[in-house]
């Protein structure tokens, strides 16, 4: 058996982190197995007796085994496997259940998450993505008996499949069986066959074939979202509203009746199936969240969007159900929130430039709304359609203006002082350089790169070969 001990050499870690020893043996991924499954398989194949030892080798911390979905120390894992299993982003999106949240994130939030990839400390990924208190998050391990037997026969070892660990997966996509649930009470690396023998805490549920088919559709749609970069929630929302209005659930006028939407959802087959699958979370099937979801108050929760879409289209085939959700712009009919047909695929509201300037000229949204003669709620809603929330629009606009002013200040100084050095710019344009160095470092580096460095060559310090240097010289 090949040794699994770390190599003698050390690979440099990014972002000034300590060096990480790379593994001498890196198993490849097996199908759609999760990151936890790979680590458990590595732990068993290498014969490590201590789960903490395996956690330290793979993630640089003994307690990584407690985070069964995605430990924070993914950068250490990528460095230890010398990138053979993918980058931090690819592992998070395609090998963990947290990856289901990714396509539903706002683009600004997605860029913020990317800044955390190089870090090894702080809150967990679910907290950083914005789902710390989700009551429908999967915290247990799930598996299918037939899939386990198939894996043992094919590759000689079982694995945890990602499709079984998603937050709305209750049925196996391949066999249609209800998934077994393992409630892990110990921090260790387990695989499905050994899990039942070691813990004896598996739960098996049974329901009618009709309920199984409904839950399988939901799991199929969730699995299709894995690996998708982004989902156009604006178009999905418009298509969902049009579907509800066509079915007579919602009226063609505003405001939409939230109580009526809740009653409709409670009577759907999907709501009854969710009550049978998760009796402890019956509040999800009450439908009170539908109105808030359509009014952009809970727009980033993936399970709610998946449940709503499956409830609206119970008769669609799996292909039509998936394509309509992932690519709503490809539909022959595109509708806005008011039920009006659109010629373009992105029915976003765009504020006129003069309105943008008026908003920026005021110190707050309240003053800007008063000057426009509208309510602040209406103004906030239009800004949300632009992808901003509250004072974020003003803050970002002021930051863009401040960046432009700082760059212009440095350019004017160079024009007024031809032949100046970079040191002179740092000295005389201290405020502009400090702001750019903190908020727009790349722009500062590109601007200073156009200015040649004119420092004199440093002279060599001469030392006497006959003895120590005289301190008075």
Strand content bin: under 5%
The assigned structural class equals mainly alpha
Q: What is the tally of helical segments?
A: 23
- Give me the side-by-side strand order of the main sheet: 3-4-5
- In whole angstroms, how far apart are the ends? 67 Å
Oligomer designation = single chain
What is the number of beta strands? 5
Calculate Rg over CA atoms.
28 Å
- Tally of discrete structural domains: 5
Helicity range of the residues?
40-55%
Low-confidence stretches: 7-18, 195-200, 342-349
Pattern of helices and strands: EEHHHHHHEHHEHEHHHHHHHHHHHHHH
> What is the mean predicted local confidence, pLDDT?
77
> Any idea what the shape is?
flat
Main sheet attributes: strand count, strand direction, barrel closure: 3 strands, antiparallel
3D architecture notes:
It contains 23 helices and 5 strands. The protein has 473 residues and is mainly alpha-helical. Strands 3-4-5 form a 3-stranded antiparallel β-sheet. Strands 1-2 form a two-stranded antiparallel ribbon. A hairpin with an 8-residue loop joins β1 and β2. α10 packs across α15 (302-312) and α20 packs across α22 (430-439). The protein is flat, with a radius of gyration of 28 Å. The relative contact order is 0.07. The model is unreliable at 7-18, 195-200 and 342-349 (pLDDT under 50).
